[in-house]
Design a protein that fits this description.
The structure is a single chain. The chain starts with a strand and ends in a 16-residue tail after the last strand. The chain contains 9 helices and 15 strands. By secondary structure, the chain is α+β, with helices and mostly antiparallel strands. Strand 2 and strand 3 form a beta hairpin.
């Protein structure tokens, strides 16, 4: 049984025919059976399905003479799509009105099952059911408590990937997804490096000094107050990160394209990507948390 994905298309209905607009072009369709079948097939666009399922839909509309090669002349169809690695998305968050808005939007946009849990250690035991993309969205930033949960998630669910959404004064960042099995650089390869060097030789960066103070004194750093537009930018970046990790990709889509920090400037809306390296003193390189 072959897995396929039909790319999205549009149907414009007229009295005696319909116009099919797809990535293959625009086609005039007169067959009422075919038009009904295309309306039903549209529910499965951009989602992996099987050739057997498509054949059943065509048979239901008495189109047994139509097969996949015939459909491929009308619609863009990807064949032999690999099964998605992730079985679901898990978002751990602290209660807040802005995350409630994010929940409503993301549940409409994300194809995979989406689970929302409180951002606390007890929630870790509720994360099961196969490989998951786990997203931490704290309302404030306590570096030490986030670190404890981050590595507890990695250690307890080695097949999962974990990413954190955090704020700086002018931006919001979704960190590189980290998996203890893959052993790629983690969030704290960046954070602990900054704190370490700020301790050894203080810089002129107010943000670095703030990170070092909060980490050393176990202090919460509250998130900035955002406008409605800035909230929408944050939600959009979360959706972008989820899509980058879960969407079906062409063979030329490389690991570095997804295992990176993604940051959006909350004033200019500019998005940039960064691929942080390992830090040789980080706990993820065989330290106490690994």
């Amino acid at each position: 049984m072959t897995t396929i994905k039909i790319h999205n298309y549009e149907l414009l209905n007229f009295e005696d025919y319909s116009l099919l607009s797809s990535k293959k072009g625009i086609t005039r369709i007169k067959s009422k059976k075919m038009i009904k079948a295309l309306h039903e097939l549209k529910d499965y666009c951009d989602t992996p399905t099987t050739t057997a399922h498509i054949d059943n839909i065509l048979k239901r509309h008495q189109l047994t003479h139509i097969d996949l090669p015939d459909l491929d002349t009308l619609l863009k169809i990807d064949i032999d799509i690999p099964s998605p690695y992730f079985k679901r998305i898990v978002i751990l968050h602290t209660q807040g009105e802005h995350w409630a808005a994010a929940r409503n939007i993301l549940e409409q946009e994300i194809k995979l099952p989406l689970t929302w849990l409180p951002l606390e250690m007890d929630s870790i035991k509720n994360i099961d059911g196969g490989p998951s993309l786990v997203i931490l969205l704290p309302n404030s930033q306590n570096i030490n408590s986030i670190k404890t949960m981050y590595f507890a998630l990695a250690r307890g669910h080695r097949e999962n990937f974990t990413t954190v959404g955090y704020f700086t004064p002018d931006s919001f960042t979704m960190t590189q997804p980290y998996s203890i099995s893959l052993a790629n650089p983690c969030l704290f390869c960046s954070v602990d490096r900054v704190v370490h060097f700020e301790t050894q030789l203080p810089s002129r960066s107010a943000w670095n000094a703030t990170m070092k103070f909060c980490s050393t004194n176990n202090v919460d750093l509250p998130n900035p107050k955002l406008s409605a537009l800035q909230h929408s930018l944050v939600i959009g970046l979360i959706g972008r990160k989820i899509s980058a990790m879960t969407a079906q990709r062409a063979p030329s889509f490389y690991q570095d394209n997804v295992l990176s920090n993604t940051t959006i400037n909350l004033h200019s809306s500019v998005i940039c990507e960064e691929r942080p390296p390992h830090w040789h003193l980080c706990d993820c390189l065989g330290g106490t948390h690994a």
